[in-house]
Amino acid sequence: MSSKVCKHCGSSDIDVDHARGDAVCMGCGSVLEDNIIVSEVEFVETGGGGSLAVGQFVSSEDYGSRGY
């Protein structure tokens, strides 16, 4: 995210925290992005030489009930 610039103060010191799901300007403290969703696909190899995609689907109905 270092190529991004804060629209509030012009700082390019942006902290992206994937665990929190946000991007914050370190210059002025503005939250530039929130609810960042990272799309990653992982595969595992099965015993028979095949592969399976690993992940978890979270529907919009589950979003509130799981405390996300």
Automatic annotation (TrEMBL):
UniProt superkingdom: Eukaryota
Keyword tags: Metal-binding, Nucleus, Transcription, Transcription regulation, Zinc, Zinc-finger
TFIIB-type domain: residues covered: 2-33
Protein's cellular compartments: Nucleus
Main location: nucleus
Signal peptide coordinates: none
Family designation: Belongs to the TFIIB family.
Protein name (database record): Transcription factor TFIIIB subunit brf1
Protein encoded by which gene: BRF1_1
